[in-house]
Amino acid sequence: MSAPPLNQPLSRPDPTLPVGMFDSGVGGFTVFRELKKVLPNEPVVYYGDTANIPYGDRDPQLIRKWAKNILAFLLQKNVKAIAIACNISSSVLTAEDLAQVPVPVFGLVYNGAAAALQATKNSRIGVIATAATVETGSYVRTIRSFNPRAEVTQSACPKFVPFTESGVFNGNEVDKAVREYIAPLKEKGVDTVIYGCTHYPLLEQAITKHLDGVQMIDPAVEIVEELAAYLHTNDLLHSATRQDDMIYASDLNEHFFSTAELFLNRDIRPLTQEVKLNLPEQKA
User: Fold this and answer.
1) What spatial distance separates the first Cα and last Cα of the chain, rounded to whole Å?
2) What's 83's DSSP letter?
3) Is 197 marked active-site?
4) Looking at the domain that runs over 19-107+221-274, which CATH code has it been given?
5) pLDDT digits over 178-237, tens only?
6) Burial class of residue 166, CB neighbours in 10 A (0-12, 13-18, 19+)
7) From the candidates 71, 86, 125, 194, which is the catalytic residue?
8) Would residue 157 show up in a list of annotated catalytic residues for this protein?
9) What is the sign, positive or negative, of the torsion defined by CA atoms of 75, 73, 85, 252?
10) Are 207 and 17 in contact (CB under 8 A)?
11) What is the value of pTM for the model shown?
């Protein structure tokens, strides 16, 4: 199930321009990392809205407003394509919102759902996500649009993002939360589980030890595959020597830098700027 862009690009962009990417915080670095594995020469402009973390317990319509403003910021940076590295943003942005974006946009939900359906043997799929993403039902709708008979069990995991944003990836409290959140999935006999939040692969070791034999789907991997295929098919790959990335955050902190270094294997401080956008109800 190949995934075209979520919108219809208005014109062919310049291949030498960077790829835009955004998330609520550090979780999007999982997508960033995958992009660099597949397309190491592609420059990236990344925005992390760390001032408003976590998105998972916010009003979906407020998140939609934030996401639209971040899209506008990335367009100001002259990107040639945008990867929405945030599941809740992918869930709340509408077709009408994306139709106004002149460059191709790729989201996580379609790609994660398609990969899970290809992987499952018993059509019982689990989704671990933030409460906001669970509330939208985006994964359930997308999976059942492909296979109406698929059984989808969702589990909200409100402690996972605070753990990762605090740099806590294992330990007794993480283990306790994992057991609690995956219990309904195990009860339903799922054989495939989607990471419905880009932060959650940061807890992969703690999560997978309780899901023996279950296929884990990381939409970050899937979205990068589709983006790379699109750029290749449309002759939009960056063919010049690798250029520097640019990284922006609404509130810089040491964890942002350390997590980026962990996943990108480099110090991003020289590439990073703090930029607070005019986001509704943004924290001071």
Assistant:
1) 43
2) E
3) yes
4) 3.40.50.1860
5) 999 999 999 999 999 999 998 899 899 999 999 989 999 999 999 999 999 999 999 999
6) exposed
7) 86
8) no
9) positive
10) no
11) 0.87
